[in-house]
């Protein structure tokens, strides 16, 4: 696992989500990237049952990533992050009395996986309950493990196909003390996906108008 | 000057000796002539034998006399002076017809040349014995059986010395950790971990670096059975490139007399990769070219360049 950055790409003016994705694919292929199958990241939301205290409820997110098909990741809002076996979903069914699956909150990002030199690029269409909401781009630089070291390099790479809309260093890295590097499990990546998904869910109304 | 006088005194004896040699040769010839002619035709057999024996005796006595005379003269001539550095050939300088036969000056020049040649050949052979240019003994091939192999002295350093040199180098660079293994006999294998950037496996023969493989910090450096993997290359293109450049550096840093300096220079060079992902190319100012960061480090200045920007 190298250093990964997940960002949202705005839908181009006067284009649909699919057209913008196609355009990104074309740009990557022009650069010399080779398509290597597909990928999928999904996220299910569970809300706690029987919230007696007056505090706002804390959600539990269970995420899957096709990059690590045998594991699943459980993130508690503002709390710990847990890497578990794939059948963690079955356990969640048994915990029905404590956590209920919020139907219609399932978010998914599906798309193509590209390789360019030591970079992995995943361009995905984000769908919230099966309606397209936006585009996610994940860029991974595999040989490096210290985000601060290779950030300028990654930025230059992202500029080459995203143009000026290049994100800042992801906050999940910025919060870490110097010298800490990306762990072997992809929890940093999934945290970034989760942030992106939450943002897109809230943007529902705004972005909905731009999707044609 | 003394030589000349000494020889001048004996010139008389020389000419006498030459005459004596001529006389000796003619008297010897006479002996064989009488033998060849055989007995003269005389009336009685005794008379024939008597005359023949007398003649033969006379001739032999003549030979004996001439030989004695020659021996006497040769003592007078004396031995040629041995103090001359060129021995007998030094006498050539006495040749009065120098202009026609410049043998002596030519001889001196040839002598100087051969002296120089021997001196330089000696130097070269001692250098070559120190460090055979062939880096592997196998390259000597079939001829090694016939020729006794010269073991270069720097290849037989004691392991303790190698350990010392390596640990000294390790202390010089705090951001670089060097572990030493000896998986097969005395040859050392170093595992160099540079910051959180890369890991390099360096295979040594004594203090000479034989081979090196550079891999990413997060890549596996052990094989499945737990041994150091010194063969398989990195999965990442950037480190395959760095491995190529490191091999170039091995061939660049060569100083047969001081192998420890070579190892130190190589490690200093390798250490410049600590900012592999952070330094833009010194020529084009960009980070990436064909998807790779600047993988080349100048051997002298240690500046970073893309592979195609370095010329």
From TrEMBL, chain A:
Keyword flag Repeat: no
Compartment(s): Nucleus
Chief location of this protein within or outside the cell: nucleus
Record bears the keyword Transcription regulation: yes
Pfam families noted in UniProt: Med20 (PF08612)
UniProt keyword annotations, A-Z: Activator, Nucleus, Transcription, Transcription regulation
Any one GO CC term of the record: mediator complex
Domain of life (superkingdom): Eukaryota
GO BP term, pick one: regulation of transcription by RNA polymerase II
Molecular function GO labels: transcription coactivator activity
InterPro entries reported in the protein's UniProt record: Mediator_Med20 (IPR013921)
General function of this protein: Component of the Mediator complex, a coactivator involved in the regulated transcription of nearly all RNA polymerase II-dependent genes. Mediator functions as a bridge to convey information from gene-specific regulatory proteins to the basal RNA polymerase II transcription machinery. Mediator is recruited to promoters by direct interactions with regulatory proteins and serves as a scaffold for the assembly of a functional preinitiation complex with RNA polymerase II and the general transcription factors.
Summary of subunit composition and partner proteins: Component of the Mediator complex.
Family in the record: Belongs to the Mediator complex subunit 20 family.
Listed name of the protein: Mediator of RNA polymerase II transcription subunit 20
Organism of this sequence: Megalops atlanticus (Tarpon)
Encoding gene, per UniProt annotation: MED20
UniProtKB/TrEMBL annotation, chain B:
GO-annotated molecular function: transcription coactivator activity
InterPro entries per the UniProt record, alphabetical: Mediator_Med27 (IPR021627)
Keyword Transcription regulation: yes
A GO BP entry: regulation of transcription by RNA polymerase II
Localization terms from the record: Nucleus
Keyword annotations of the record: Nucleus, Transcription, Transcription regulation
Coiled-coil region: none
Pfam family, one: Med27
GO cellular component, one term: mediator complex
Family classification: Belongs to the Mediator complex subunit 27 family.
Protein name, per record: Mediator complex subunit 27
């Amino acid at each position: 696992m190298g250093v990964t950055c997940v960002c949202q790409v705005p839908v181009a003016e006067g284009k649909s989500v699919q057209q913008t994705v196609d355009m990104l694919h074309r740009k990557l292929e022009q650069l010399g990237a080779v398509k290597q199958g597909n990928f999928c990241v999904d996220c299910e939301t569970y809300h706690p049952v029987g919230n007696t205290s007056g505090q706002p409820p804390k959600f539990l997110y269970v995420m899957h990533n096709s990059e690590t098909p045998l594991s699943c990741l459980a993130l508690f809002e503002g709390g710990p992050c847990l890497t578990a076996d794939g059948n963690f979903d079955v356990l969640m069914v048994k915990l029905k009395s404590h956590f209920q699956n919020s139907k219609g909150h399932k978010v998914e990002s599906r798309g193509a996986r590209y390789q360019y030199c030591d970079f992995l690029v995943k361009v995905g269409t984000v769908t919230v309950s099966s309606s397209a909401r936006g585009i996610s781009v994940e860029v991974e630089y595999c040989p490096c493990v210290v985000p601060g070291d290779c950030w300028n390099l990654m930025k230059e790479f992202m500029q080459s196909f995203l143009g000026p809309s290049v994100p800042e260093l992801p906050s999940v890295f910025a919060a870490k003390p110097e010298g800490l590097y990306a762990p072997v499990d992809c929890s940093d990546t999934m945290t970034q996906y989760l942030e992106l998904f939450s943002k897109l869910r809230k943007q529902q109304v705004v972005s909905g108008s731009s999707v044609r | 000057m003394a030589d000349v006088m000494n020889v001048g005194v004996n010139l008389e004896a020389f000419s006498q000796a030459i005459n004596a040699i001529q006389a000796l040769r003619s008297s010897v010839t006479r002996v064989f002539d009488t033998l060849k002619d055989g007995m003269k035709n005389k009336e009685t057999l005794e008379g024939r034998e008597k005359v023949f024996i007398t003649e033969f005796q006379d001739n032999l006595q003549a030979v004996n006399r001439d030989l004695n005379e020659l021996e006497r003269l040769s003592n007078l001539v004396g031995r040629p002076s041995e103090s001359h550095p060129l021995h007998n050939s030094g006498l050539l300088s006495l040749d009065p017809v120098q202009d026609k036969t410049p043998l002596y000056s030519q001889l001196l020049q040839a002598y100087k040349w051969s002296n120089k040649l021997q001196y330089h050949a000696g130097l070269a052979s001692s250098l070559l014995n120190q460090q055979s240019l062939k880096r592997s003994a196998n390259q000597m091939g079939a001829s090694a059986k016939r020729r006794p192999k010269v073991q270069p002295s720097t290849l037989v350093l004691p392991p303790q010395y190698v350990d010392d040199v390596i640990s000294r180098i390790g202390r010089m660079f705090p951001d670089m950790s060097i572990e030493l293994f000896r998986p097969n006999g005395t040859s050392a294998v170093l595992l160099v971990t540079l910051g959180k950037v890369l890991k390099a496996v360096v295979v040594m023969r004594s203090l000479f670096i034989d081979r090196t493989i550079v891999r990413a910090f997060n890549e596996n450096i052990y094989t499945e059975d737990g041994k150091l993997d010194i063969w398989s290359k990195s999965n990442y293109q950037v480190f395959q490139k760095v491995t190529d450049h490191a091999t170039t550096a091995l061939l660049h840093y060569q100083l047969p007399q001081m192998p420890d300096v070579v190892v130190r220079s190589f490690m200093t060079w390798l250490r410049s990769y600590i900012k592999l992902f952070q330094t833009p190319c010194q020529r084009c100012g960009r980070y990436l070219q064909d998807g790779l960061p600047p993988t080349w480090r100048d051997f002298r200045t240690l500046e970073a360049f893309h592979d195609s920007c370095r010329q």
